[in-house]
Amino acid sequence: MKSNRSDSLLVKYLNHSINNDELDELISWMERPENRDIFKEYAKVNYSIDYKLSSYNTEEVKNILLDKIQKDKRQNKRKRIFRFTKYAAVLVIVVGVLFLFLKENSNHATPVPSQDDQTITLELENGRSVILKEEATQDILSDNGKVIGKQYKHAIQYEDTELSELVYNTLKVPYGKKFQVRLSDGTNVFLNAGSSIKFPVKFIPGSDRTVFLSGEAFFDVTKNKDPFIVNADNIDVKVLGTQFNVSAYPEDLSMNTVLVEGSVQLLGNIPGNNTKVLLQPEHEAIWDKAEKQMEVKKADVASTLAWMNGQLIFREVAFKDIIQRLERSYNYTIINNNPSLDEEIYTATFNVDIESIEQVMAYISKNSPYDYTISNNRVITIN
């Protein structure tokens, strides 16, 4: 790929305007080891500039990147090479840099009494809720007025406070939204729509680092001698330091854990549940809630992690399962009055940040003709 072409694709990807054919071309370029670090630095520079400047400057990003590459060559630094699964390459890197560029200046958070359907909120230990507006910059304060964290736009970073006991906060993300949090130990968590996570403001050294998940999240865990545990659906996902995705929506029939790198152990944590599974990279553990059984198989990492980049990838997925994911991503209620559609199988990729729910439904209806109406931007009826 020529340099100007790769520049164009990188900018399109980072601006969320890349189409599927261009994404395939970018991934082919990424598969060459010499290009992976270039993309990583490109992503870092993009977010740094984007968070500090009022507008995105493509030429400035390019110039800074080229200057850095030239300096690296002059200093003859040994570059770190990463192992990537196809598609996961561009997804996992961005998660790692999202939390690096939080601004220092901030305003105090405003307490609110309740949460509406479209509000991201942080519930503090005393039950007080704080609204997290997606374009806001603010301090997160403890009950005694001390700064325990900072929000900048779509992310919160917690400080390493002097607390000596466990104090929990709960982050709640409604349908149609996503949000990120960097925990006090440096662990990065990226929450999907309709998810919540309960976590300590500070982990206590010498004790397990335990968080409680409802919904879906990607974890990039900071390595530590104290085990990191994700508790979801009566299963503990136990790690020391690794990257993995957990999907544990209460309404789903199963809990799914996909390991990107490192290793995780899944343990049952209720009486009569003796589940114990050691998961290997690029594999998925599926916990059947009804049967109380665990299945392990090769994972489709690309499809699993696509949500972090605003994409929904369906590969031979039944329509009834597609509906659930569309409802979460678009915050629409979908009522299917044609049961014969439930078992129809589809393979498709949609970009939630670019394509509207109307476009998605129109595309699906071309393959299995049906009529639908959209009322009040909330309900879709399929006849």
Characterise the protein shown here:
- The structure is a single chain.
- By secondary structure, this protein is of the alpha+beta class.
- The chain folds into three domains: 3-82, no CATH class; 107-302, Jelly Rolls; 310-382, Phage tail protein beta-alpha-beta fold (3-Layer(bab) Sandwich), CATH 3.55.50.30.
- It is built from eight helices and 25 strands.
- The strands form three sheets. The chain has a 20-stranded mixed β-sheet that branches. Strands 22-25-24 form a three-stranded mixed β-sheet, covered by helices on one side. A two-stranded antiparallel ribbon has the order 21-23.
- A hairpin with a 4-residue loop joins strand 19 (283-288) and strand 20 (293-298).
- Helix 1 packs across helix 2 (20-30), helix 3 (33-52) packs across helix 4 (58-74) and helix 3 runs parallel beside helix 5 (88-97).
- The longest helix has 20 residues, at 33-52.
- The termini are far apart.
- Residues 47-59 and 68-116 have low confidence and may be disordered.
